[in-house]
Amino acid sequence: MLKVSEVLRIKGNTLYTASPDMPVSHALQTMSEQDIGSLVIMDHGMLSGMVTFREIIRHIHGNHGEVGTTTIRSIMDDAPVSVTPNTSADEVQRLMLENHARYVPVMDGPVLLGVISFYDMAQAIVAAQKFENNMLKAYIRDWPTETDPAASQAE
Fold this sequence. Notes:
The chain has 155 residues and is α+β, with helices and mostly antiparallel strands. It has one domain (4-144): Roll (CBS-domain), CATH 3.10.580. The chain is built from six helices and five strands; from the N terminus they run H-E-H-E-E-H-H-E-E-H-H. The strands form two sheets. The protein has a three-stranded mixed sheet with strand order 1-2-3. It is elongated, with a radius of gyration of 22 Å. The two termini are 35 Å apart.
């Protein structure tokens, strides 16, 4: 069964974080420059929230197209769903769908290990299914037949 730790190993370990007191404009700039869809918000070494393009777009829409001087604290999701390295891929999918979460922090106790995106999950699941499919095809291809002398001797 596919686990979060395996998805993180494939994905890599680059993390982007911000503080809750950072201006939204700075978060928007970081997300744009790094081509990422979320920032994990850390406060004194502890997970305090997540900000994604969804929250930023809502903020800009509510301010008539302006970012303003607002800080991340006022727009962030202060109770994001998180998972552990041992969480199964099925459980991550369920949590993402139930909570409409495109990005989920991976925590080992208080330590942030990474962020799993909906895209990361889709990519990992497709790779796992491809591997399984190839293994099944190899198994079927190597299936002993009745004309196989080794199969006849085994009987």
